[in-house]
Amino acid sequence: MSRSRTNSGAGELLVELRRETAVPLHQQLESGIRERIRQGLLRADTVMPSTRALATDLGLSRGVVVEAYQQLVAEGYLVSRTGGYTQVAPAAARAPQAGTKKQPSGPPRIDFKYSRPDVSQFPRAAWLRSIRRVLNETPHLSFAYLDGRGADELRMALADYLNRVRGTSALPENMLICNGFAQGSRLLLQVLAASGFQRLAVEDPSDNELRDVAETAGLKTVGVPVLESGLDVEALERSGADVVLVTAAHQFPTGAVASAETRAALVEWAGRRDALIIEDDYDAEYRYDREPIGAMQGLAPDRVVYAGTASKTLAPGLRLGWLILPSRLVEAMAAAKVVDDRGSPVLDQLTFADFVARGEFDRHLRRMRPRYRELRDALVDRLADRLPDLKPIGVSAGLHVMTWLPPDLSEDAVMRAALDRGLGVYGLAPYWVDRAGPAGLVFGYGGLTEAAVVEGIDLLADAVASVRDHS
Ligand SMILES: Cc1ncc(COP(=O)(O)O)c(C=O)c1O
């Protein structure tokens, strides 16, 4: 086996040198560095190790490294800077190689992809104040492993907030902090499957991700149609489900609100069948023309698991979510959370607790509501002007709008024509459960500016016209 030496251990630059070959060491060093720059592994403006450090590191004389650097400077791969250091040249950034595959085109210039709040409005200053307070005031012990339910402070702050704003009946001891709805729902479905639940009813149409999670947990999923008044409870009766997931306050994606009758019928169903309701309250904070309906959890705390998230209100990257659990599920859920990840990051939890308890969350939402409302109004108005046959359905709420498509337009054709114009729009097809329902579009507007929303609808009108011209 050939002997080689690299500086991969403590070194600043990984280069392999083969001392037994006839190729001079400075050339080996040059080609090693050249290749790394070409492959994009050493990026433009990276500061190279000093010649002295690299020579020591690789067991070379400094002259060998100087010679290699000089050659690469001459070739334009490196530049020497005043101050005596050397950098990877900006122009040496990786160029597309002949014969490589065409890069996929970038993301659409204007994108109506759903589930994007305006993260540029994240309340950094207030969040920073909360972080500072937490770091200054929190006792050391709070940074140890937590109870599986999460930090006491956050469970208390959220219980108060939800009882006040969402009409829940939450006790801090029944709350569990999780990494968003994604983790909370996964753990819940696993716990339910392990305790004998068998069949999960989901709204049809609805978010599709959870169905796979349910199947993996061992639950059969069944779709139940959504009416204008919320879930079709008679169809739920027939489905044989023992647990149902609903977005009662603002159905995703249709935007329907479950009526008082629907909510009462759901609770009655759950009591009679000894069944459970999972209430995904993902965007209830955003209501633009009416008071939000209270959470169902407040009607039947022992039959409803309430799920909330900071993904729409603050930022999805925070990965902060919460559940209010019926008492009989608390222990198993806390244990499942510990097994899964030993708890959500404590500093984030304590920061959020301080943020909520000091009223910053309310302030942030008061600031964001009119912004989102303006975006929604701009979208709906422009649709009415430019595409009057794409009528929005659902209430004025949340961060998305849905429209049906007229029968002469297919989702695929519209999405393709839009993409050709740098516009991302998204069809309803993935949301149907076990039937191919009518065609429609779901517009997420949370992360866009008003100008982009208006331009986006203009581009869509152009796309739709071209689809019609070619059909
Ligand atoms: C219907 C629905 N529920 C919940 C969520 C929030 O998920 P998470 O808290 O995991 O970010 C989303 C996010 O897009 C959603 O669309």
TrEMBL record:
Q: Does the keyword tRNA-binding apply?
A: no
Q: Which residues form the HTH gntR-type domain?
A: 23-91
Q: The organism sits in which domain of life?
A: Bacteria
Query: Has the keyword DNA-binding been applied to this entry?
Result: yes
List UniProt keywords, sorted A-Z: Aminotransferase, DNA-binding, Pyridoxal phosphate, Transcription, Transcription regulation, Transferase
What does the record give under GO molecular function?
A: transaminase activity
**SUPFAM superfamilies in the record, alphabetically?**
PLP-dependent transferases, Winged helix' DNA-binding domain
Similarity remark? In the C-terminal section; belongs to the class-I pyridoxal-phosphate-dependent aminotransferase family.
Which PANTHER family does this UniProt record tie to the protein? HTH-TYPE TRANSCRIPTIONAL REGULATORY PROTEIN GABR
Which protein, by its recorded name, is this? PLP-dependent aminotransferase family protein
Lineage of the species this protein comes from? Bacteria, Bacillati, Actinomycetota, Actinomycetes, Propionibacteriales
